[in-house]
Amino acid sequence: MAFARAYGRSVDEIMTRDPMCVAPDADLIEAIALMESHHVAQIPVVLKGAVLGMISKAELLATVARRFDQSIHIGQGVRDNILAAIRKERWAAGAIVDVVVTNGEVQIWGVIVDNNQRKALKALIENVAGAERIVDHLKLRDELPL
After folding, report:
1. What is the per-residue pLDDT across 97-128, written as a single tens digit (0 to 9) for each?
2. Cα–Cα distance between 130 and 28 in angstroms, integer?
3. In the list 22, 107, 108, 111, which could disulfide-bond 135, CB 3.0-4.6 Å?
4. What is the pLDDT of residues 27-67, one digit of tens each?
5. pTM, two decimal places
6. Do 137 and 90 share a structural domain?
7. Which residues contact 82 (CB under 8 A, 6 or more apart)?
8. Residue 7's domain is classified under what CATH number?
9. Listed residues 62, 85, 104: the one ending a domain
């Protein structure tokens, strides 16, 4: 109370009169767009006139960061499983292969001996849990410039 008396201001003097709000089921993109267009760092979440909470840019960023970390962790596990499976196969001899896994997409990079290795690698990868799509960047050894 002493602070309020000393500075003599009331809430209605500093509050936002018509704040932008979002519903609890609003799309996150909509919430971000509202924050950006109105130059605010947070907006209330309202249902039937009652404020349920606030959503902030900091919370959104933290959520994105957590999902990114989870995606990398999951992708690393899928990558490890693919490379371990390749190392077990005799037909993979002579191939120099690496994979990058992002959100279920497996990019295969490297050099192979022939197209039978390409087909076998793709078949192997298709059977690894978490591998949803394959993008082939493989090169045949005979096609490489010396």
Report:
1. 999 998 889 999 999 999 999 999 999 999 99
2. 26
3. 107
4. 888 888 888 888 888 899 999 989 999 888 878 777 766 76
5. 0.52
6. yes
7. 99, 101, 106, 124, 125, 128, 131
8. 3.10.580.10
9. 62
